[in-house]
């Protein structure tokens, strides 16, 4: 059943904005990334989403395709972003079936709560591999097509007129704000997302001369997402909302709108930047996981493992 447009996209954008464009997205079955892709599909794009779970990825693709009659959305499961050949095969299929790649969203990520004492070397490596290596593999597999698309959709440097073919050659890395001020139980994610940010900045510098733009979207606490459920204990949720500058959590529509901004003509001169979409949340004192029963520093001083958190790994 199609979602109401208001659930994933504001009325700001005109229909057909991304007609004949193709977006490739890792982690595309996730709550945030699926909303990003759905918004682009609603506005005319076709899409390819990849993920590890075959059934979940294929169902998500079918669901996203309902955003626009005639939309083509491919869901490719059994793709491990840590394995370059796995990603390259998915990219090759995307190009063969949809004709190219104009936009990329590197959204695959891993997360769970754990203190450094609780965090094994393998668990730390797993997050680094998914987030950092996975983002790099996504970049490497799609770069030839991003460069090709950027070349087709150049902005006239003298008149500043956009290409009549629209935009292309743009990549967004989905990051976080955790590493700006640091958060207990999130060392692995903080280090990984700092690496993802650095990667995006480097892409902007090295491939800017070829017309490719590279930016980061850093979501804050987004309502009804798996990440929020994992990072904020249920007993602290109501209190945490009250600490937010805007007095609420964000929505997936907020992230989708930011994505459209960066991929459309409005983002033609935006590159090497981080677009934080968090209602100024990160500027408040570090909280999140260190709230409620996990209050800082008391819980850390007990030496106990983080208990009863949705999505927590049973063995780290």
UniProtKB/TrEMBL annotation:
<dbReference type="GO" id="GO:0005777">
    <property type="term" value="C:peroxisome"/>
</dbReference>
<dbReference type="GO" id="GO:0008670">
    <property type="term" value="F:2,4-dienoyl-CoA reductase (NADPH) activity"/>
</dbReference>
<dbReference type="GO" id="GO:0009062">
    <property type="term" value="P:fatty acid catabolic process"/>
</dbReference>
<keyword id="KW-0521">NADP</keyword>
<dbReference type="InterPro" id="IPR045017">
    <property type="entry name" value="DECR2-like"/>
</dbReference>
<dbReference type="InterPro" id="IPR036291">
    <property type="entry name" value="NAD(P)-bd_dom_sf"/>
</dbReference>
<keyword id="KW-0560">Oxidoreductase</keyword>
<dbReference type="InterPro" id="IPR002347">
    <property type="entry name" value="SDR_fam"/>
</dbReference>
<dbReference type="Pfam" id="PF13561">
    <property type="entry name" value="adh_short_C2"/>
</dbReference>
<protein>
    <recommendedName>
        <fullName>2,4-dienoyl-CoA reductase [(3E)-enoyl-CoA-producing]</fullName>
        <ecNumber>1.3.1.124</ecNumber>
    </recommendedName>
</protein>
